[in-house]
Amino acid sequence: MALKETLQKTGELNKKYDYYKALGYSDEAASVLACFTYGDFVIAKFATELGSEDILKKVYEFVGDDNIEDAVRKIREKYIPVVEDDMVYSARPLRGRVFRRASAASAGVSEEMALQADAMMDGAAPAGISMAKMGAPVVGGLAELKQLAEDISSDSYEQIEEKDAKGVFTAPTSTFRMTTTTASMGVVMNQIRNERKVDMSQVRIEEVLNYFDYDAKAPEEDVFAIETEILDKNEQKKLFYINAQAKHEVKEHQNIILLLDVSGSMMGNAEVVQMAIATIVSKLKVGDIFSLVTYSSKDETVMKNYAIRNESDKEYIMGRIMQIEISGYTDGSAGIETAYEIGKKNYDKDWNNQVILITDGDLNFGITEKGGLKDLIEEKKKENLFLSVIGTGLWNYKDDKLEVLSKHGNGTYCVINSLEDVDESINKHYESLTNIVAKDVKAQVEFNPKYVKEYRLLGYENRELNHEDFANDKVTSEPYGSGGHGVALYELMMNDGAAVDNGLKYQTATVNDSDELCTVKIRYKEPLADKSHEIERAVKMAKTETKNVKLAYLLYCVSEKLRGSDKLDEDDEKYLKEAIAKNGNEQLMELNGDKLKSFIEAYTSDSFIDA
Question: In the CATH scheme, what architecture does the domain 254-434 have?
Fold first, then answer.
């Protein structure tokens, strides 16, 4: 059976084929990449189900294996026959365990969890899980494995504690690390797609806001442009929107070091990771340098200092990718050391020098604690290499560790678990992901007590700073990629502009006669500099409502609902209900189209949300 005929058997394969073709891969390469994924179990599974060893040989021709017959024989001995209908059953215990782990991988279950599933299905309960909970030893399908994974899930996120409003007299300034990161949105959508409850710690409001597009112009000469809008919520409250938009600047050449986690916990993520890698490789140009480091029980340099000479070199790289096997535990710190060493040797200050880490964050060997990872990456970033993180995975995802790596590695962070995620976060925003135009970006807003009584920053709970941290260059922050934007939204409780009482016994309030609502400041460093620059914008009291603040308001309301928060008032509930009834509002759809529609549909269709 020809690969082309295989593609026509399923719309999902066709969709992947179309995506690879759109990236610029040849018909043959797109066909192979759509049908097969690195990691030999998946290749063997497809080949067997389709009943054709010729297809398997075709794959090995593509990846450049010199001994095709031997490769086919080894894989057939190791995995074939594959169990029908994805059932995790075999009369032979040893082979049954192999199939259970393989089937678990296709369901997104880590190798560690699959091993525990093996023990349970063979009659032994893993630590902390009683046999009574699952009943007698069972053999079953993927549903049982998914339930087991839920029971022993070890996801980890930095906890979020929502903040109350602050009084302007006691706290006149609001200071925080500005960010362009969108990772939380990827996590939330993955939870909903897999019918898992969203936890408050997974919903970082600022990252949900950042994921969507706004009607904002990038500066042509300055590094940043500050845009603001004001929306009247009711007679006493307003919403204040800030968008710090970065300039577009792309270096002529790239020194890309791809650092790929190939440990056992990544087995279920191989398909989406392959799409991500193919997307990154497609962005390489003649003269760029590409290196590939993999890590699991040990790190391995698969490709080093590979210079792109023509388009076919990209397909050669993908052929090398498809030879990679997935196994072992995760020593991520060793891989980081190797990747930075390679990047340092190829470093050119006029190039985009970028380490791109793809992982689920499950570091279980080497430096594993967040504090140790922070120290490691803080030391490495002195070499002026930037680290961007692409997270992927379900049931064993370590978001808190990946946050640390990206925040302190002068890079951005996104999460992918579907073709749509890859297209949005990597393909469409590759320049923002990899071309850093500013680092240590902080924001500070000073409110005028004549007009503002109290304010509440919506989100940014784990990014808040002290007032004095803004001007302290030793306090680091996060970077901005080319064309990136960071959005902040405030809820303001207003004064009427008359004389105000600060409520203090020994001090009398003195307020300047100004018609300004506030002043917004952005402080940043250029990518290779140690000295900060600062820009500011005074904001007048006049109403400046547009579709930008309306979109941010809608996203905030949905985020609070997903959190299970009690922060929404009657006006918020009314706004959310009306916006959803209008399918997100036509104006907002103009900016985000299917992206916003998918988010609203996912939110409203989920059974645990009372919308």
Answer: 3-Layer(aba) Sandwich (3.40)
